[in-house]
Amino acid sequence: MTIETLPLDAKTTRALMGVSTATVTTVLLKKGLRNVWLRNTQPLAPGQPRLVGRAFTLRFVPAREDLATPASWGSPISTRAAIENMPAGCIAVVGALGVTDAGIFGDILCARMQKRGVAGLVTDGVVRDVAGVLGTGLPVWCQGTAAPPSVAGLTFVGWQEPIACGGVAVFPNDVIVVDQDGAVLIPAALLDDVMAQCVEQERLEAWIMSQVAEGAALPGLYPPNAENAERYRRWAEAQGKK
Amino acid sequence: MTIETLPLDAKTTRALMGVSTATVTTVLLKKGLRNVWLRNTQPLAPGQPRLVGRAFTLRFVPAREDLATPASWGSPISTRAAIENMPAGCIAVVGALGVTDAGIFGDILCARMQKRGVAGLVTDGVVRDVAGVLGTGLPVWCQGTAAPPSVAGLTFVGWQEPIACGGVAVFPNDVIVVDQDGAVLIPAALLDDVMAQCVEQERLEAWIMSQVAEGAALPGLYPPNAENAERYRRWAEAQGKK
Amino acid sequence: MTIETLPLDAKTTRALMGVSTATVTTVLLKKGLRNVWLRNTQPLAPGQPRLVGRAFTLRFVPAREDLATPASWGSPISTRAAIENMPAGCIAVVGALGVTDAGIFGDILCARMQKRGVAGLVTDGVVRDVAGVLGTGLPVWCQGTAAPPSVAGLTFVGWQEPIACGGVAVFPNDVIVVDQDGAVLIPAALLDDVMAQCVEQERLEAWIMSQVAEGAALPGLYPPNAENAERYRRWAEAQGKK
Amino acid sequence: MTIETLPLDAKTTRALMGVSTATVTTVLLKKGLRNVWLRNTQPLAPGQPRLVGRAFTLRFVPAREDLATPASWGSPISTRAAIENMPAGCIAVVGALGVTDAGIFGDILCARMQKRGVAGLVTDGVVRDVAGVLGTGLPVWCQGTAAPPSVAGLTFVGWQEPIACGGVAVFPNDVIVVDQDGAVLIPAALLDDVMAQCVEQERLEAWIMSQVAEGAALPGLYPPNAENAERYRRWAEAQGKK
Amino acid sequence: MTIETLPLDAKTTRALMGVSTATVTTVLLKKGLRNVWLRNTQPLAPGQPRLVGRAFTLRFVPAREDLATPASWGSPISTRAAIENMPAGCIAVVGALGVTDAGIFGDILCARMQKRGVAGLVTDGVVRDVAGVLGTGLPVWCQGTAAPPSVAGLTFVGWQEPIACGGVAVFPNDVIVVDQDGAVLIPAALLDDVMAQCVEQERLEAWIMSQVAEGAALPGLYPPNAENAERYRRWAEAQGKK
Amino acid sequence: MTIETLPLDAKTTRALMGVSTATVTTVLLKKGLRNVWLRNTQPLAPGQPRLVGRAFTLRFVPAREDLATPASWGSPISTRAAIENMPAGCIAVVGALGVTDAGIFGDILCARMQKRGVAGLVTDGVVRDVAGVLGTGLPVWCQGTAAPPSVAGLTFVGWQEPIACGGVAVFPNDVIVVDQDGAVLIPAALLDDVMAQCVEQERLEAWIMSQVAEGAALPGLYPPNAENAERYRRWAEAQGKK
After folding, report:
1. What's the ipTM?
2. FRET pair for A130, CA 20 to 30 Å: which of A138, B31, B192, E168?
3. Helix/strand/coil for C34
4. β-strand partners of F168
């Protein structure tokens, strides 16, 4: 019923750790994908480092008093069971319908995810007991904080299904990159191609920044005209030789 | 993977056809269920009659350009395939994330649902080609109308799963009642009990309306105090004898 | 604790019955009042005629399960008690926080208001059992329709207090004019002055419309330059002589 | 400073009069244009017929009390002057920032537009004095109705400039098609190509509807598989011969 | 007209100072109260400590230019007068309709509240002159910051009345607990019972956290099954003996 | 086509550097201007100092896939060209329709603005590559951060035109003051008069704060009654003598 989690090879992870989410969106937009950045999800703590990992998805629907009860926390389809299925290194992506008045997880669930080696938590909802969550050290991207438990607004219905998160369709095993600008996904099928272009785009923009630092004007530089493209090509070549 | 559709017996249908959605919500609230009315879904045509039926659910996530394409309309997981699985008499409940700028269905899909004997369509999204949809005669409750196709904003991912629709959790086989006030669900497990209380509540409110028509003041009448409760009891008894 | 209702003299009512809400807002804006039109309140039935009357205010706060119960309908501070205090000819203005998923009133309460001679009901919330409400004949301006009872979303706390309705401050005894464009208030203290200017503004705009019908261009006509102002003055004078 | 209005030839107008806005969006989406349908604009009167015409744009910014005054109605940059510049047959598209509490135009301005032969008015804002506007007979698509004048919420700044309307970029001379589903634009540069494909798409969908009417199932029909595509080709050919 | 402020005994204050708002919402949800956490109100300064106190309520309605003027600041019903009525130790809860473009209070009013020993300020609106407000040392929970004065968007109408704040009904003398997760209320009538359960819930969750720290899995632990409940019981007993 | 940028004299700049945005809004409100504070724009970095400068405006409309492409970055009407036209000392005010899912500028464009001596950037949109933007040292006020490039949601159409920003009409050369409370504008025509009153208002409020610090109650002090006004007058006079 749910989709198996794939590993992400170390080379891909390493390459993407050097690429900003801004660059990923630029590269994907050039391929026609304009809706890959998850809205309403921000770093919970300042200075959280960039993360890269496969998406492990969780899905909520709205609360119904006959379903969303503290008793439901013990049912076989529960957030607890989902967490016990998360592989080390994955990024948990939780579709919470953008609900801001019920916290999906608090300190206990985040502590358990941390113990299991989950890389981080990304949601369009909020967390609760923020002091406790920060104490666990799990990196979290979310819309904010609320005291009430998830059952005050949400009913959990399953994991590793396609979900909506922040107005974006997230499928299990999409690759997530998340940094200070928030979370972006790379569709699994496009991974190798996107990764290569991202690395190149980062290098080009670093060169452009160096030119701006020296006082160059923008027109003809960003994007580069033929002359600047050639200057860049030579610089990149020289870089490669070092 | 998806849940089988249950029939709804004729006696239940008949009883609920005499009960307003307002009454259903009153009875469910007394049982502690405050979130059973689907927001953002209104009759598309004036004068659509009340409908009663089992929910057959469809689920969308947001559009992604690599997924939501006209080509996807031919895939095995498609709105087309979902429609061919709908049993006669069901009410299709489509969770469309409240999206108002992409129509989930147009004239062709609605015509096919009508042909298959689907009782009606309820969604928190919108339909397209409204003139064509009205022409099919399928009763529709929705948030309005938009020209663009579903793939401009939505990706279809499955049917007969738990969904969010209008801020309410709808499960396959919940019983839907829909009228001029919109759509309400009755959890399958509570059906018999709720039905009985609804019929009684309708009768009580009819008696109260008759008293107001004769000039009675509200305090002590609605809800009835002991004296009025007794007067009603006698009237109801007399009604029963006729 | 609550403010007494003042009557509205027949001459004022008659004069304002000939003035559109659009004209009232134009006249008030010239006096510096830009926030007098109630947002989110529209005619429930097509063709409801213009109404003029004193505001009789009702105030809700959000629902709390320990307060907003069916039992609360029998308490001394209840919508029922408020209705029994409404004088004939008033316009009930109900501040419902813009809540759209709980109906403030249904058929029974509207029927009682109609019986008591209440001129109409204006709210930034919604009504329930819309078929029943339309059956009572009470003119209603609201944001729409919802099945759930008020206690699903709101707690009633009092009447004839200052309220917020549609983003506007409404005080008991403000004069309400409501037509196809919705509801506008005239502060009691400004009534006579505003009324006189409204009557004049309506006459001026009627003359301008007659000029447009004859093919006149807008610049210099609306608003009138000196020449057109003089032409209008002569026409108005001639009108006065008839 | 402003862009000149181009005429629209009679053949194009005639062809597009037979094409629904739903079809236009389908054809444009296949070309990668997903944001061409104006949100928040609906027919003011039921049964308004489809219109086709060049966009004549008007632009508002928010109100500022030192600028948006009744006196400003007489300034050279005014809605009055803009209207006197509208050519017969154009569709006025007014970017009103989605403001719903100040009416952009009332009866007088709409009457003048009607006199000048303007085909229709499309806005993401609202109109005022709705009874008067309906009386002028000008077809209007808007978000609703409000009593206050434009200066209560908006300042007019120019015409025939690029504007935002309903979340869509509208440029002067884009071709507008508007019907019961609202308004869609066709970029001027794509007009001929889009028109041809729209006509063909309408014919295909008519054939599919005829098949559904005869009981055909959707998979393989919509979109057509090879067999159905061939059946359609033969039917279309036969149609052509008649 | 307004309700007298009750004191809060030291024992209750002390007990609740050890309880998180998350725990209060969990306990109240088990009693059927799902709407007790105030939306849109966050700590203004990082690290503000938890506060406990009786609610002293203030109520605003929208601005009206004839009422909301700088002159109104001197009227007997003013925010100034309200502040002079606040008892030491209370928490001022200000219903500001969620308005984010007019600051309810600035440095002067906050300085005076601080002088009077008010424990803190909670609002669903915003404050102005944030640098000045932070300088007063008054702990503030709000939706953010805006430069304009309250009269640009709000009219003050009274204190110690039932109010709406953050979508929650707050009554004078409800007990407020506010920390990093925001503000929650405990209805006065439920105080003793809720307090006792909160203390117990905090202890249980501390034990569960200790188990997670040792590597325990969640199912059967949170909530505890019979075996874990027994283990906890023994631990708690042992704790009690220390 | 675009409006020339005026310089701002040093004396005005110096005077306004000592005035808070809160005070500017108070003074403008007394003149009847209630809509001068830009919504949805906050300091990107903590502790950004107050800035004063002329507005240099930029205008976006929504994205259209045929217009908003990476290729468009090289067109003559581009954000790059706009930046090259900004004079030193101006404050760039960018109307971004409140779009939060596409960053208007990233590190490269901000670095270039910084190089050109632009004083700061104010927008109702968001920036991208926030780490890079902070690295440039350009002071930014915005609604937040998003990874996608501007063309994912916006099309740039011009500079030095009247724009909407944060629900406020901004004209080229309006004077902007921006601090921790956000950005406010002073219409160019009112500059000298407003400046003088602001300086006096700041002095009065400083005196009131000193009185509150000494334990004075608010009524009669803020605003001052005759006695306190006289006390202030004497204090101000004494100040002047020092």
Report:
1. 0.95
2. E168
3. coil
4. F165
